[in-house]
């Protein structure tokens, strides 16, 4: 059966999107103090989507369900990108009808464990649902931290980005990277709206961190699987690394995140030094199994 609709979230998402649009870019003149909203008005969105104002108001208020046709016109009217459109359809219950997989117990796939063992000079991490860290190699421990020293219940990449001082300091562009991670989690949340662990994670971070609370409320979504990370490591200095993520083909939702540097670059040399140092740390090697 299709995902459960969430009228409240749908309305909040639509409001968040229209609030960030410039009326002048849509041909709507600003009228100074008479304009009480920073973005598009409800009637302006309705006009762009060719639907009645009353219908759109009831849609934002969660009093009516949107058809796939209406969602398509709203996506065009609000100029939603691919990720935002996917999220819109999911929370409106218009995604595909494949049954959801249970995510109660996460164990890294054997094939991903083998890949970690073969990636000796390349930091790599296996991420599960909610960005839980399931397994890692010694190079990743040398770059980030020894995940084995983090309690299993706290071993979550997003949580650590916000709450672990060393990992937070590692990111030269922390705000950019953290916001991307929040948007990725928001994208995942659309597929698992009833996940109690996800709700607990969001609740904890919302209480602990003002930035997370504000960025989660923005309802930005992002499913990008690649990008560039800029780090400043305490031992080897600045690193510019390509970050690529591959999703396991078995539908488990597990992902392999790998960080590499351009061959012959200063970052490549520093990464090799760091990985060599990490390879001689026995605890990191033992904990790369990701047990627990």
Automatic annotation (TrEMBL):
Residues 35-85 form the HTH cro/C1-type domain. It comes from the Bacteria. Coiled coil: none annotated. Gene3D superfamilies: 3.30.450.180, lambda repressor-like DNA-binding domains. InterPro entries: Cro/C1-type_HTH, Lambda_DNA-bd_dom_sf, MLTR_LBD. This is Helix-turn-helix domain-containing protein. SMART domains: HTH_XRE. PROSITE patterns: HTH_CROC1. PANTHER family: BLL4672 PROTEIN, BLL4672 PROTEIN-RELATED. It comes from Gryllotalpicola reticulitermitis.
């Amino acid at each position: 059966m299709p995902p459960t609709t969430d009228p409240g979230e749908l309305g909040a998402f639509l409001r968040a999107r229209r609030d960030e649009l410039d009326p002048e870019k849509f041909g709507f003149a600003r009228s100074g103090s008479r304009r009480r909203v920073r973005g598009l008005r409800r009637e302006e969105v309705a006009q762009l989507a060719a639907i009645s104002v009353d219908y759109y108001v009831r849609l934002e208020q969660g009093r009516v369900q949107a058809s796939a046709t209406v969602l398509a016109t709203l996506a065009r009217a609000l100029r939603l990108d691919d990720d935002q459109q996917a999220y819109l359809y999911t929370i409106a219950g218009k995604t595909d009808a494949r049954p959801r997989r249970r995510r109660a117990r996460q164990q890294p796939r054997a094939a991903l464990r083998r890949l970690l063992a073969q990636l000796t000079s390349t930091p790599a991490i296996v991420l599960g649902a909610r960005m839980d860290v399931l397994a890692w190699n010694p190079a990743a421990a040398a770059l980030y931290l020894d995940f084995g020293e983090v309690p299993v219940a706290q071993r979550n990449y997003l949580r650590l980005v916000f709450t672990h001082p060393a990992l937070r300091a590692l990111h030269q562009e922390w705000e950019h990277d953290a916001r991307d991670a929040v948007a990725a989690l928001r994208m995942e949340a659309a597929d698992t709206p009833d996940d109690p662990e996800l709700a607990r994670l969001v609740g904890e971070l919302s209480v602990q961190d003002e930035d997370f609370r504000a960025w989660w409320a923005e309802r930005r979504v992002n499913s990008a699987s690649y990008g560039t990370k800029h780090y400043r490591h305490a031992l080897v200095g600045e690193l510019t690394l390509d970050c690529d993520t591959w999703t396991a083909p078995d539908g488990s939702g597990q992902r392999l995140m790998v960080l590499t540097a351009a061959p012959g670059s200063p970052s490549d040399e520093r990464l090799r030094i760091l990985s060599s140092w990490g390879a001689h740390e026995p605890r990191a090697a033992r904990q790369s199994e990701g047990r627990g």
